[in-house]
Amino acid sequence: MRLFIEDEVRGLLPMRECIEALRAAFKAFAEGEAQNQPRRRLFLPSGAVLHAMAGACGPYFGTKVYSTHPRHGAAFTVILYSADTGKPLAQFEANYLGQIRTGAATGLACDLLAPPAASTAGLIGSGFQARSQLEAVLAVRKLKAVTVWSRSAEHRAEFAREASGRFQIDVRATASPEEAARGCDIVVTATSAKDPVLEAAWIQSGALVCAMGSNHPRRRELPADLVRTAARIVADDPAQARLEAGDLLLALDQAGWTRVEPLAGVTPNTRVPGITIFKSVGLGLEDVAAAALVWEKAATLAR
């Protein structure tokens, strides 16, 4: 079984290719040819938590196991198996893999759901996930300007400087979340917040809101009125969202959940008037698709 360290994963997992790998995986999911197993958590008295999720697609299946601790951070591992033999193929250090596949899910959603002429994006959050979120949006839309806000003025200013240079686009740090979000075609929330970081009045009609920061049933980035009045709600997997998407669980009643569509069922050119929400909780299927791409590219290079 081969071990892929972070630097190898980084070099073999370009954002655009990861978006296409997820596109194929979600197509297989829609056709009943892929599987996703929702996250399970084991809580320890020390505050440490063990998280496990799995998926299967095509000739591969796999699992992601990761630990989190409030003082010591997180550590991620993905193991990829052959579906034909059941034998393990590779183990991946997966901090970067998870960051890229999370961004790629947003990129795929933006490609399917954002206005084709979208030219502005607002980011709430300036951490490591926000960087891949912006990269993914830029992979599918030609943005002219980006605004960013986070609680730390220093962090958001540094993010704006770094992203402006890296992506050769005008990225501006703002003094408030309203200034970052109001009037944007695409708004992405990438925070660790427990309570909403947006207000419905800030979001213009026709915008796409991508919320990816929370996968806990009691935490949310979006206010209930924004969720309830959205013209369209799409989740990476509604079944998993019903277990851990606080943005939706804290806003929707049973009737409201009937409006939540799976990303796997979205086809191009089916956008609707009004605000669209994409809620991402992160799927084991996505991890398997990303790991398989790294495995196959490494195999090609070795020939």
Tell me what the structure shows.
The protein has 303 residues and is α/β, with parallel strands linked by helices. It folds into 2 domains: 115 residues, ornithine cyclodeaminase, domain 1 (2-Layer Sandwich); 170 residues, Rossmann fold, CATH 3.40.50.720. Helix content is 38%, strand content 27%. It is built from 11 helices and 14 strands. It has an 8-stranded parallel beta sheet. A hairpin with a 5-residue loop joins strand 5 and strand 6. Helix 3 runs parallel beside helix 4. The protein starts with a strand and ends with a helix.
Strand content: 25-35%
- What spatial form do the alpha-carbon principal axes imply? globular
* CATH-scheme architecture of the largest domain: 3-Layer(aba) Sandwich
Uncertain residue segments: none
| DSSP helical segment count | 11
Topology as a string of helices (H) and strands (E)? EHHEEEEEHEHEHEHEEHEHHHEEH
Q: What is the number of strand segments?
A: 14
Radius of gyration: 18 Å
